Amino acid sequence: MHEYSLAKEIANIVKEKTLNQSLVSISLKAGILSGVFPDSLSFYLELIFQDLGWKDVTIHIESVPAKYTCHCGKTYTTEALLSGCPDCGQFERSLIEGDQCIIETLEVK
Ligand SMILES: [Zn+2]
Fold first, then answer.
1. Phi and psi angles of residue 41, each rounded to the nearest 5 degrees, phi first
2. How far is the CA of 39 from the centre of ligand 1 (A)?
3. What does pTM read for this prediction?
4. Partners of 62 in the β-ladder
5. Could you tell me which CATH class the domain 2-108 is placed in?
6. Residues with beta carbon < 5 A to ion ligand 1?
């Protein structure tokens, strides 16, 4: 259900931004730490868009790896959450991105 409420939220933002235009395509970035399943999100978005009268919207969802800055200064991205810094092997790090789901582009007609 997480994806359904997220899809609703995205649709509301899209409605505001597109005004009375019709949505053609949307690109999203889903961080791997956001807990979003792209297939599931895409499924709900399609349903909601159809309800809004937008047919055949191209939905692109890119999975974004987690990006960290290590205490040693190294910035790195990883999809392997159980591996530490590639330089020093430490786990003391700050998350920069990878826990959010963002709208990258919208195309309307
Ligand atoms: Zn390090």
1. -65, -45
2. 34
3. 0.84
4. 29
5. alpha beta
6. 70, 72, 74, 85, 87-88, 90
